[in-house]
Every structure is written in C-alpha cells, then in structure tokens.
Amino acid sequence: VEKLLSKLICDYTLTDSHGLITSPNYPHSYPSSVVCTYKIIQPREKVVSLSLSHIDLGWNDTDSCSGRLEIYDGDDDLARRLDVLCGTDYFIPSRVINSTTNALFLKLESYSSIGENVGFQALYKTTDLKCGGLFTERNGTVRHPTYGTTYRNNENCDWVIQAPPRHTIQLRFTSFYTESTHDWVKISELHEGRIIDLITISGSSIPAAASPVITKGRILYIHFRSDSSNVYTGFRANYTFIDPLELN
C-alpha cells in the first residue's frame, strides 16, 4: 500500500484457492481518493467464482457514485469487463460473477468524501476448468485438453491470449479437425474497447496455414463449441507476441 499524488494506492495478488476480499478498513468507512486492485490468479486448469455479499460504495450530493468497483475477466483492467458496481445496496443477495479463465481482476476507486460507507465484501473460490485458460507467456501452444483423442459433446471452451501493452499476437494453427459446420472455433480480439470477430473455423483442414491470424490489439479470444453429435480430435495452434519496436 502506498500514497501517490494524494491517492491511496493498494495492490493485492491472491493465489490461494479461496478467500475473502474487502475494501480497506472494512467493516468501517473506506477511504476517499483510493485506488485498490485485487488480482486473483489460479492455476490454468481453474476458473474463479466471485460471490459479492455487501456493496456500500455510497452516493455524493449530486446522486452520482462516490466510488465504483469494476470486475474484469483476466489479470488486469485491459481484459473484458464483466461488471461495474457503484452506489449502495445493503440488501444485495449473494451475487456470483464467474471468470472464463484462471484470473479475475477487481478495481476499487473512490472519488470524493465517503462518510459512513464501508465499501464492499466478497468471497472467491476456484473450481475445475474443463477446457480453456489464460495465456500470458510470450510463446505458447493452445489446444483442447483432450487433443490427440477426441473432445466431448456439448462443450463451450474459452481461451484468452493476453500480450503486454503495445504488443500484438500472431496465431497459427498446426492441426484442426472438428465436425464440419456443427463444431467450430471462433477467433476474436479486443481492440480499442470493442470485441471484433476475426474468423470462424470448422471442418478438417488446417486454416490460415500460409497466413496466420495477426491481431491489431493485445488480447485474443478463442472460443470452441461442440454440439451433441460427432466428435473428433479438435485443434492445436501456436502463438507468439509481436513487439512492433523489434520490427523496426
């Protein structure tokens, strides 16, 4: 925790399989002019479930929020935003927010005098991820966990590849075999605050063999879906981060 430019800054990284998260000073008044981040990081085969039990971020004299809590599906605030909470709800039921990867990021920020508002309280836990995950290494391979045998019916899997700021991502498939038109892989990216669909692939040919997928932004999504009939071996793809400065 540090004080910087009249703001209280606090950053937490949580790696336990379950735990309690609260605003500073909870259950007493949380500070004004605070920015706190909570990064929940779990093994790649896990996902995170966050249960919010108390929200009391407050209102100011103009009926706008005194503070806000943002929740992101990844390990920083450049990932896909799942929810934004502000104001006061003393009677909030246990509201559950689930990640699609092994990371969840919370950002608490207050703007003005807080008064008696106590902030928030939440519990998190991890559960097994059948398929999917978050990749942040510079190079890697993405594949269905049962690749080499067959995937399962009625699956929905999400992989997220997240490069550092000012980098892009190159993805090249090395193997691909799904039920044509029924089981498919969709590639999307997050660019300038919008999710843009790049390509949807199905069948038994290796896509983009000569020209790999290259993003404009730093976050790439891979979504796999299978139906209730035939199953095949799935896919495998290699990725690498591209630093524009290294190309000059």
TrEMBL record:
Residues 10-127, 131-242 form the CUB domain. Pfam families: CUB. InterPro entries: CUB_dom (IPR000859), Sperma_CUB_dom_sf (IPR035914). The keyword Repeat applies. Keywords: Disulfide bond, Repeat. This is Cubn_3 protein. It comes from Fopius arisanus. The lineage of its organism: Eukaryota, Metazoa, Ecdysozoa, Arthropoda, Hexapoda.
